[in-house]
Write a structure and sequence with these properties.
4 helices; mainly alpha; binds zinc ion; 72 residues
Amino acid sequence: MKLYLDFEPCQECNTMMKELSSPEMLFADEKTRSDESAKFLRHLTYNHNEVVQAVMEDLPKQKKDQEFEFFK
Ligand SMILES: [Zn+2]
């Protein structure tokens, strides 16, 4: 699942996003990658609650759009 977030990343966010998209991470095993993503999500939950809020509000909307596409 891809999320497009519109928010102001802090220093820590930038570091983690860089780590997540680094070549080392791209070739890391599944567990390391999911650990890193979980760490980032946890940081978002605690430090950028507005992002989590926005994602939660956006999810049902996205699902509806998909269903609409399906029935067209
Ligand atoms: Zn941050």
